[in-house]
Every structure is written in C-alpha cells, then in structure tokens.
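Backbone-to-sequence.
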C-alpha cells in the first residue's frame, strides 16, 4: 500500500475541552504521522468555502457558526492508505453510530460537534490540504 496524505481538522468542541493532544495521540496510534499542523480561527469565508459542498443542506448555517466558534487545529496526516485509515479512527459522523475506540465515540458531543474532520477521498484530501497549507508548511 502506498504512503498517502489526508487532511484533518480538530474541531472547536475538542480544542475548547483541551483535547488537541488526546485526539492527535489517537491519530498517531492509528499509524498516521502529523506532517503539518497549525492552530487557527477559521473565518466565516473559510468555513463557507470549505463546506461549500453542503451549502444547500439544512445544517449548513449552524455548521459554519460552529466551525468559527473557536480555534481549530488543521493538520496534514501521512500514512499508508491515509484517507481510509483516518476515516476508520474518526468513526461515524454521528457519534451514537460510531464504533467503540474511535475518536468520535470517545470524544464527540453531537452529530455537529463531532471533534474531527477527515477528507473522504484522495482527490478531496489534495483540495483540502491546498485550501489551508502552502507546500513549504508541510514537512514530511
Ligand atoms: N453535520 C451536521 N449535521 C448533520 C450532518 C453533518 O452538523 O446532519 C456536520 C458534522 O460536523 C459533519 C459535517 O457536517 O462532520 C460534514 O458532514 P459529512 O456528512 O461530510 O460528515 P463527515 O465526513 O464529517 O463524517
């Protein structure tokens, strides 16, 4: 299997509870390596742009408000089959449906405040990485 990259966000519900390290440890234990990381406060424009695919969904406005409600940590993760590996350790979108031992089962507060984002395909990973990082900010 090839070493690939994915994009992750530690969301405001997790940074608010001081879980940046705990979440990152679970990512690392899953075999992922943090090759870029920065703590930012997303602007409304960034959040709307990042989640543009969900623009017509009923939860869009609440989601943008949530994602701009506090700091987030954006990360590039590297590992074998990184997209799938990250989705596995994240768990299902709704924490009630997430498997035991996943980040969302362990830490998420709700379907919205679900602690982490992870790209859902290699193609989207590249788009999302480019949205937040310059090439020189990624050190593999
Ligand atoms: N979300 C929400 N309500 C929903 C579905 C999703 O607030 O009914 C939020 C949630 O924070 C989720 C994000 O929108 O992580 C993106 O949704 P998606 O379906 O892409 O899930 P993910 O890929 O994050 O598991």
């Amino acid at each position: 299997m090839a070493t690939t990259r994915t994009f992750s966000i530690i969301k405001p519900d997790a940074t608010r509870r001081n879980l940046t390290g705990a979440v990152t440890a679970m990512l690392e234990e899953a075999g992922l390596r943090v090759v870029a990381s920065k703590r930012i406060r997303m602007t409304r424009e960034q959040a709307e742009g990042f989640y543009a695919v969900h623009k017509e969904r009923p939860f869009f406005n609440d989601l943008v408000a949530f994602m701009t409600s506090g700091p987030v940590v954006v990360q590039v993760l590297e590992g074998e089959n990184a997209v799938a590996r990250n989705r596995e350790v994240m768990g299902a979108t709704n924490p009630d449906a997430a498997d035991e031992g996943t980040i969302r089962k362990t830490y998420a507060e709700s379907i919205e405040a679900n602690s982490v984002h992870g790209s859902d395909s290699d193609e989207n990973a590249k788009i999302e990485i480019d949205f937040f990082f310059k090439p020189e900010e990624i050190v593999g």
